[in-house]
Amino acid sequence: MKRNGTKKESIKAFARSFQSLYWRQLALTIGMVLLTLILLGTGFFTISYNYIRNETAATMEENLSLVADISANYIEGERLSLFEDFRQLARIAASASDTDFLICNAKGEALLTTDTALEGKSFSISREIRDAVLQEGSYKGVGDLNGLYEARQFFVGLPIYSNFDGSIIGIAMAITSASGLMGLWRNALELFWMIGLTVLVIAFLASSYTTMQQVQPIHAMVQATRRFAGGNFETRMYDYGRTDEIGELVASFNAMADTLQQTEQQRRDFIAGISHELKTPMTTIAGYTDGILDGTIPPEKQEHYLRIISNESQRLSRLVRRMLEVSRLQTLDIARDKKKFDICESMRRCIISMEHKIRLRELEVEAEIPDEPLLVLGDTDLITQVIYNLLENAVKFASPGSTLELAIEENNDKALISVANMGETIPADELPHLFERFHKSDKSRSADKDGVGLGLYVVKTILEQHGEKIVVTSEEGLTTFTFTVQLAKKEEAYVPIRNN
């Protein structure tokens, strides 16, 4: 039973192999070539057969017309059987043209034949042939002439006209073996099939090669996809040096693989980052809660640790809110929400909202903001959030008593917004990582105990959704964030910022 089952599986696998793209494409190509050969062959056979038949018939008619003209004198004088010289002349003509001649009277009765096998026999041609010759003036056909011949013959009939009054006085027929006619046609047929078979073999080899060239990258892509499904995101396809559609497909696949690998890496980094960010407050909350419950922490200190638990819980809440905010930003269609608004007004509102924190750190603000409205194109709330996040970050890490520098200026078709603060210089190798999720530089970690490391990531996400850029520099304690916003065209509608 096991052997039978294995045999059936082998047969099924073999049958499935013929259902592959390679065999379907190959069968389609060979089928089209074969169908073309059949159609061409049918047309060629028909044309060649008719051509050979018509040429043979034309030659027979030409010879037969001479015989008919000569025989008219003898039929009219009823001397056909008396003149052996005419019989000899007809035999010579028959031998020269490889054609037998038959002379009949107007009733279709045989008077003379050059075929020695029919000499001395009394016979008549069929009424069908006689009527066709008398009424239509000629006849062409294939047959055995009412059983006179064992093999089929090709014959042509013409009327014999009187030299006196032009009336039909007899029927002349030229008869040749149909096998000779078919022999010529068969030779042409054999030549065609030989050429057709050669073309079919060449088409099979060429189609097999080209189909394999097309299918091979697809098989490789299937294998690569399976490896991707297994979690191997480093798989890449070889482009086989092709620049056609297959080459473009391979390039697109590799680009997709790069994106997936990058996304997977970002997912792992995100999980690692959030695990780290959640671990510390949750460990603190759990440890202090257990300490209060089991009495390890004395009653007089419980209020202090309950405040710590409360702060850590609030930080967890802020982290979850920021994560939801990032998720929402990544699914927004910013292009539909872009409107014209005054970026100067947005900057002023952010400064006012941060006034309390600025005063607590005794900071001075130097703002180079144009008095006239500077209209930009974007989502008002999101761009305002970018300014707020940068300003909050600058206030948080600015040295107490230092100065915040804010500026807005035009540069071609962009508005440049910059926020700068004096504080600790950020190392050059840290600058590229400032906009990553959950990233905190070592120098800022102690100062930003309440942060969740998503503020600057939110800034970068919003600007990328707008198609804008942000850069950061940090030299000699001065850290400056500068981002761009598209200037609005004059004809675009202006939407003023409303008080909430």
Keywords:
500 residues, five-stranded antiparallel β-sheet, 12 strands, five-stranded mixed β-sheet, alpha+beta, single chain
What does this structure look like?
- This protein is α+β, with helices and mostly antiparallel strands and 500 residues long.
- It has 13 helices and twelve strands.
- It has helices spanning 2-17, 21-76, 84-97, 127-136, 178-229, 245-293, 299-331, 334-337, 343-353, 355-360, 380-397, 442-445, 455-466; strands at 100-105, 110-113, 139-143, 153-161, 168-177, 339-342, 364-368, 375-378, 403-411, 414-422, 470-475, 478-486.
- Strands 2-1-5-4-3 form a five-stranded antiparallel beta sheet, with helices on both faces. A five-stranded mixed beta sheet has the order 7-9-10-12-11.
- Helix 2 (21-76) runs antiparallel to helix 5 (178-229), helix 6 packs antiparallel against helix 7 (299-331) and helix 11 (380-397) runs antiparallel to helix 13.
- It is rod-shaped and about 155 Å long.
- The relative contact order is 0.06.
- The model is unreliable at 442-449 (pLDDT under 50).
A few lines on this structure:
The protein is of the alpha+beta class and 500 residues long. It has helices spanning 2-17, 21-76, 84-97, 127-136, 178-229, 245-293, 299-331, 334-337, 343-353, 355-360, 380-397, 442-445, 455-466, and strands at 100-105, 110-113, 139-143, 153-161, 168-177, 339-342, 364-368, 375-378, 403-411, 414-422, 470-475, 478-486. Helix content is 57%, strand content 16%.
Total strand segments: 12
Shape: rod-shaped
Please count the helical segments: 13
Low-confidence stretches: 442-449
Distance between the termini: 81 Å
Instruction: Output the structural class.
Output: alpha+beta
Element-level helix/strand string: HHHEEHEEEHHHHEHHEEHEEHHEE
What value does the average pLDDT take?
78
